[in-house]
Design brief:
2 strands, globular, two-stranded antiparallel ribbon, 52 helices, mainly alpha
Length: 1033
Amino acid sequence: MSLAAFVERALRPVAAAAAASLSSSPPPSLADSLPADSIGDIVLEINAARSTLLKLVECLGPALTDLDPFKRAQGVSLLASVIAKTDRSQISAQSATVLSQFFLSRLDDQPSVEYALLALLSLLESNALLKTDQISIPTRIFAELNVQTFQQSVRMTVFRIFGHLFDTNLEGLKRLGTDFVFGFIHVMDGEKDPRNLMLAFRLVRRIVAHLDFAKHAEDLFEVVFCYFPITFRPLPNDPYGITAEDLKGALRDAVASTPAFAGYAVPLLLEKLSSDSAAAKRDAMDAVAACAPVYGGQVFLPKLNLFWDALRKEMAQPMDPANELAAAKAIREITKALSTTVSMSSKRDTPLEAFITMILDDSIKSLEDVELKFAKPCGKIMLAAASASEPSCNMIVAKALPVVLNVMDKEDAPSKRKILVDIVGDFLVASRLVYGAPKSGGDEDLVGTPLQPFKDRLFELFMPICLSDGYVPLKLAALRGLTEMVLSWSLLSDAEDKVVLELVQMWLLSEPETQLHDKALETIQTLADSKTEAVLNITVPAILGGLQEARSDNNVDKVTAALLSCRALSRSKPMLPVIVGSLAQIVNAALAAQVLASRDVLLQILDSLLAILNDVAEPSAELKDQTPKLLLSLVDAAVTAHRSSGSSVDKTVVHQVAHNVAVLTRLVDVDTQSLLVEQLHATQGTSPEMWVRGVPVQPCLAYLYATVVANVSNKARLPIPGFAAFANDFVSAALGASGDMLLVEAAAKTIGSLVNKQHGLPGIDVFFSHFQAAVAEPVLFNVSSPAGHRLAVLTVYSWIAKALVLRASPLGYTMLTRVLGLLAETHGLSLAAAQAVQSIIADDAEGALTKSAHATIRMLFKQRVYNHCLPIVASGFRDAEDANKAAYLHALSHLLRNVPKGVLLNELPKLLPMLLFSLSLPEADLKLGTLQTIELMVTEAPSVVAEQISAIVPPLLSMSLYANRSFGNDPRVRVAALKVIGLLVSHVPYTVLHPYKPRVIRDLAPAADDPKRVVRREAAQTRNIWFMPAPTK
């Protein structure tokens, strides 16, 4: 087809669109009526150089000159759409000039304006338009268009054109100079759309930065400041993502963009500071803080006392905390601006001295007040001003600190002393902000902090307070002061730093979860980054020594305190390898000790080590280097302890060691992972009794070996010559382990991981055939086989099924169906089969067959498993005898806990009868899972709950009572039931609940006397909710 034919086809819908426009309001978009395929054909012709844009204009001639404005606009729209998609190489300078002149001529044709502007923007972006032609665009826009009468999209295109000209043709805009500024003011005047305002405010900053706007400075300021203070509430799910803070920030930056605005802005900002609106005040203070560095201090001098009065009032009586912060920032920025302002007369105080005098006069007066009512805000004011510059810091500290210390000497009330200590701490903070933290080298040439003469007195003030048994908030304030002294340059010697660290260390090893201990944790975390060497040499050995001592003494509180300290220290990168390595050594020593009483302490240490490792986002090179040694030492210590039958090394300990081994394995790269597996296999030479034909048979070793293999990358090399022989030997070892589930689980996880990740191992299909024929059929699906053997095979079978299901293999779903068939066994593996469903659908705690362990996982795996299992479980439940329904309910509970909420909500109405039946069974874990699901129903599907309220409330009340504890209603169940009863009020319509109110209040009365405090608290809260129900959400 020719270009003309393509154009004709593209314009064919014009008649229909024109007819539609006569009967529709608003009319349909012209762009929407253009066939996309026709435009694509035209663009293809031009990009292939078989035609040109100018030939396209010729073909469009009748449409572009038609008397019908709609058809003219249709032609312009088509031309604009083609230009936007045309390769830049096909737009010559000559054609760009001709096209730009044409589109500029169409700016007086209102229906065509939007498309003409879009075309001009496309020509600008093509870089084909000459610089001189580009400058004619804003000139014609100013001359032809009253921009604010057009829709938002047109106005935005105009602002985008201006922005592009600033990017590519700044010299041309400079030649336009004041004409462009004047035209821009008229374009922006009256703009209300937030998207356009964001562009306009940015353009204002570029105008004042690059163009001569002096002639129109006042008009430009007024067109900007008329929006101040700006208010904006974005619509829910706003696709543009513009927030109120974005608009406020853009406006603030525009107001603060040039000193030329100072004379107009300062009086208006002062007026806004007296507003009754907290938000307006905050915006004004933020603007003052932004403007002060740009405007300079001189412009504030005539109104300085008025600004001080307004800001002081906001600090002393803030309308909200955000306003207090904004006021402090404004004071700081004004002070900083005044610090560089020169006095006009040598006989007068400098502007800074005048402002600091105002601050000090009011502050010292408040400090000398017996009640110290306004001492605290005065401290914050002095902090803000003193932290602005060296002169302000010197002036305030020199005059105010002696006053504070003298008042403290006379004050005995701990609460008032605490206020004064806080103020001293504020001075230390200000000094550190101005003079910096400790530096290495060249310190002799730096100006010293004005606190230097007071350092001994301050140290002697803080230390006795910290060592006393007095008022805790006062001690916390004193430690803050000591911390700031350590962080400040040139204040304390190394010996004094050591004293402070020893004090912090003493608090770190004190009773955990107290204010003192929490403050010490915060402090050591701060000091670890600035005083790394001192903390490593003083604090870390003391904490680790305290942990060793507490472990030996089985002092749980001290162990907890030391472990919390280790976790706080580990957040510092230099400390992390030291802490991890030391904790691993302590674990090894604890495993070797095998003391029954230290089991809980050992688990606590392992928990903390795991938490630290899980917090590692990007391990350092040092940690990576030591990880293999740490991992192998943990494995060796655990295996050695387990072999000696130590009572401290039970299955729980092995699992917790495995958690740590899993994370350590994932921290290292693929080559190191391969080396780790090789080193584990190498232990066959030193401990041959723990291996049989290349398979670990010692239960603890086998389980930790499985953890490593399950967590290595699928690219790791494994020293397994043939998968079939290896897996068959592992299964045989598991079946011969006399019911040792550690070895069984090790075999299951190892084989499942290898089946899923493959690792390029040969013989997987051979193993499947042998396992199905020689193990699964004669053992698992033979009810006469020993129960222990069947359970072992079921564990391996379910992990293989999971490995295949994750890969979306049909064989995996066949195996899953057979597992579900075991739920029907009356006295066999029904409950174990339900647990197998949990293993298949849930994420393994130690990472096996999870995304973090590099398993191959297809999308929506859990949804597919849920949809496959649910019909089988539901039909089995209906057909089963009451005595055997529990297995199906357990399986259902596992499914419901592990699927996304959106999938679950669609099925809940059909599942409610099964859920309610499960509440009648005396099994606490099953009830807990069901209550979690009912809680989700209450919050997300209250209409379903309302329909069944008569069946839901009675069992919930029964489960809430201590008297019914023998029916599986342990404290966890009672609390969960009470929580659901309370949630009913805020989600289910009260008209539905009202008939049950007397019964609920009456039946929950005994729950308020439950022996467990947590149950009593929940019961009291729930009864209160039912006494005075709030409106339903």
